[in-house]
Write a structure and sequence with these properties.
Length: 222
């Protein structure tokens, strides 16, 4: 297990890091299986994945480390991960969520998938097929540190957008940083607690997801 034996070989060849094979009788490298999303395969010749991706990181498939880091030129692959994920139930789309690269700087104007709480409890079993084709630039993408506006639980196959009413203001978070500040509201995927001031005629207590209208007979001027 964890090895393959081409025709005429004198000894078994181990499956490379980032892959495994749980059976006997493999004949070629192509039979070695990429490490599944959410897990990593640290050693060559593995018959099973080594363990779960560390909290604060996500492993999108084929990871050889619990803390994968992607080259900044592959940062757009995160969008493909979110677009191509097999988990689509109750997913919504949000505009202009913060993107990231390995320098920790933000870039705006990119779509990202906001996944519902029910989805967080499910397991991704397949990587988007287009990511792993040899001709595609993202075929070498294995995951990365969790970007701003998202958090990554242990065993994450992709980043989870920060929940409404909270904010995720740095990379590598395993949970939201805290509730939205009073006087402000934080929609899903927020990266700052003071980004959206409560509008006139509404009030926003600590952890507000959307502004609440002032009751009849009251007024809020600022």
């Amino acid at each position: 297990m964890g090895h393959f034996c081409p025709q005429g070989s004198g000894s078994p060849t181990p499956c490379p890091v980032g892959s495994f094979f749980p059976e006997l009788g493999a004949l070629s490298l192509s039979q070695c299986r990429p490490c599944p999303p959410g897990k990593y395969c640290l050693n060559p010749g593995a018959s099973q994945p080594t363990g779960l991706c560390f909290a604060g990181f996500f492993c999108s498939g084929g990871a050889d480390s619990p803390t994968p880091r992607a080259n900044s030129s592959l940062s757009s692959c995160l969008l493909k991960i979110l677009e191509g994920s097999t988990i689509r139930t109750n997913a919504t789309w949000m505009q202009n969520l913060p993107c990231f690269n390995n320098s920790g700087r933000d870039a705006s104007g990119i779509k990202a998938a906001a996944v519902s709480r029910e989805d967080l409890d499910q397991t991704v079993t397949d990587s988007p097929p287009s990511l792993k084709t040899p001709q595609y630039a993202c075929s070498t993408y294995r995951g990365d540190i969790c970007p701003r506006g998202f958090y990554c639980l242990m065993g994450s196959a992709y980043p989870h957008s920060c929940e409404a009413g909270s904010y995720c203001n740095q990379t590598g978070l395993e949970a939201p940083a805290g509730p939205c500040a009073a006087g402000y509201y934080c929609p899903r995927g927020s990266s700052e607690p003071h980004a959206n001031p409560c509008p006139t005629g509404h009030y926003c207590p600590l952890g507000t997801q959307l502004p609440l209208p002032c009751p009849l007979g009251t007024v809020k001027n600022n």
